[in-house]
Specification:
The complex is a heterodimer of chains A (173) and B (199). By secondary structure, chain A is mainly alpha-helical. Helix content of chain A is 79%, strand content 0%. Chain A contains 9 helices and no strands. The longest helix of chain A has 34 residues, at 61-94. With 199 residues, chain B is an all-alpha fold. Chain B folds into 2 domains: 22-115, no CATH class; 117-198, no CATH class. The longest helix of chain B has 44 residues, at 74-117. Chain B is flat and about 50 Å long. Classes of the chains: A mainly alpha (173), B mainly alpha (199).
């Protein structure tokens, strides 16, 4: 029970600062879940991330999977609730008045200031996943190829994930 | 379940006569959750604005603006906002359940396979390959987001600083964000004032 409560609290705290969404939060999730709490090891964390990538659904799904891996169904529910609850309450209270705040100079200043931080955090997420997966030269080449294809072509990301799965299955990564 | 707790206020300009039931909210968001791979925002917009017309296009932009302004998972925040708008707390709950429930059940059904085969070299390889692809996709996303930042010379140093503190030095995120949001927002505010004075 203490574990389930802790899952809820950790993810509630994490998602209070998750500017840029769940992907931007990957390094911090890794820091708390793997390095600090020792709930999962590097390999399992990477696998859960990969499974969430390969499955349909929003990016936040990885949180549900982590909770489930750590403490079964109660863990999945606690982690998911922790992710959703704090901001849900804020949204609930704010949404009818948002149109009045949206144009305020302070709101716009925060919005402008947060954007570059989200960029840095998403890049940190990419770095952290590559590091935790322990990618060799082939893996790094795949990362570069996927990033290039995603930027230069209109291929659906699912094809690129399939490409990664195939290359990995063949032992190239 | 009680009815709506948040009445559609005068400020909200939802398309007239729209009042999705709890069941409709659940099914609508379930369809969104199941259709997107690696991010479902485009599908959420299509469902909400084009298919079911629960939100007018400008309403969608305003609500998404709020969800992106606040921390947290954007699409899940959006489900909360839409659910709460039409059916109060219960609506918010079923919308999120719909969004995450389907994908979770799929992964859950495949779970035993994972426990059984996770040690196989091929499975390890496939998962590592998918993680590498995800890493590439994230890098591309960061690049695109970086290109969209306004005032690059002033703001991209903050992106670099966030990356260094979080990825390389592994500082705790809450402290990093608190400090950097204050700094970056102050810079943006002063810059805005300067431009405002000039205009």
């Amino acid at each position: 029970m203490a574990l389930v409560l802790d899952l809820f609290l950790q993810f509630a705290l994490l998602f209070c600062v998750a500017f840029g969404g769940a992907s931007a939060l990957l390094p911090e999730m890794h820091r708390v879940v793997v390095a600090q709490k020792h709930w999962l090891d590097d390999a399992t964390f990477t696998h859960l991330y990969a499974i969430a990538q390969g499955a349909p659904g929003p990016n936040g799904l990885v949180v549900t999977l982590i909770g489930w891996q750590v403490a079964g169904l109660p863990g999945a529910l606690a982690a998911t609730l922790g992710m959703c609850l704090p901001m849900s309450i804020v949204i609930y209270l704010l949404m009818r008045h948002w149109h009045r705040f949206a144009k305020h100079p302070l709101t716009q200043a925060v919005q402008l200031g947060v954007a570059p931080l989200a960029v840095g955090l998403v890049a940190a997420g990419a770095f952290m996943i590559g590091q935790a997966a322990g990618l060799a030269a082939g893996g790094l080449a795949l990362v570069g190829l996927v990033a290039l294809l995603q930027l230069q072509t209109r291929l659906h990301p699912l094809w690129l994930i399939g490409l990664g799965a195939a290359a990995g299955g063949l032992g190239w990564v | 379940m009680s009815g709506r707790i948040v009445p559609p206020s005068a400020a909200s300009s939802a398309p007239a006569g729209v009042s999705p039931s709890l069941r409709a909210l659940f099914l609508g968001f379930a369809s969104v959750g199941l259709s997107g791979f690696g991010g479902v925002l485009p599908f959420a917009r299509r469902m909400l604005v084009e298919e079911r017309r629960w939100l007018a296009p400008e309403d969608f932009n305003t609500l998404l603006g709020l969800c992106q302004f606040l921390p947290g998972p954007n699409v899940i925040n959006l489900a909360v906002a839409v659910g709460a708008r039409y059916r109060g707390v219960a609506g918010a709950l079923v919308a999120v359940l719909g969004l995450l429930g389907g994908p979770f059940l799929i992964v859950r059904a495949l779970g035993p396979l994972y426990t059984r085969f996770a040690d196989l070299a091929v499975v390890q390889g496939v998962l590592r390959g998918v993680a590498a692809a995800g890493c590439g996709l994230l890098a591309a996303t960061a690049w695109r987001m970086g290109r969209a930042v306004r005032g690059k010379w002033m703001f991209l140093p903050f992106a670099v600083l966030a990356f260094v503190l979080v990825a390389l030095l592994r500082w705790p995120l809450p402290a990093v964000m608190l400090g950097l949001v204050l700094l970056a927002a102050t810079a943006a505010y002063l810059d805005g004032k300067r431009h405002g004075a000039r205009a």
